[in-house]
């Protein structure tokens, strides 16, 4: 498990990278230690990941999804859609503004809380995903 300082540096360095679509929008999958064991997905076993973060720091928006039950984090009113890159060989993906309902700072806080506890972050409100 990462300590708080290492987790913060990892998050900050990752989400500010400019990707091939010309922006910083990207998807982060976060899971417990040992979840990275699928070489076909760059070491990620997505079925074992707990938290998905779709984030664009330039728009100051993110979508947080708690994978075990599909719930989404709610902090802000719906806003702009995000264009994110999920992996180096995947096409860009659009995350609707109805899902991107937290600020980049709240996404960071949720990531750090998960890194520290391994549990669903309590720094945001969670709601069932809209169908």
Keywords:
131 residues, alpha+beta, two-stranded antiparallel sheet, 7 strands, globular
N-end to C-end Cα span:
34 Å
Structural class: alpha+beta
How many helix segments?
Answer: 2
Number of strands: 7
Order of helices and strands: HEEEEEEHE
Overall morphology: globular
Largest sheet: 5 strands, antiparallel
β-strand percent reads 15-25%
Compose a concise summary of this entry.
It contains two helices and seven strands.
Structural account:
20% of the residues lie in helices and 24% in strands. The chain is α+β, with helices and mostly antiparallel strands and 131 residues long. Strands 1-2-3-4-7 form a five-stranded antiparallel beta sheet, covered by helices on one side. A two-stranded antiparallel sheet has the order 5-6. α1 runs antiparallel to α2.
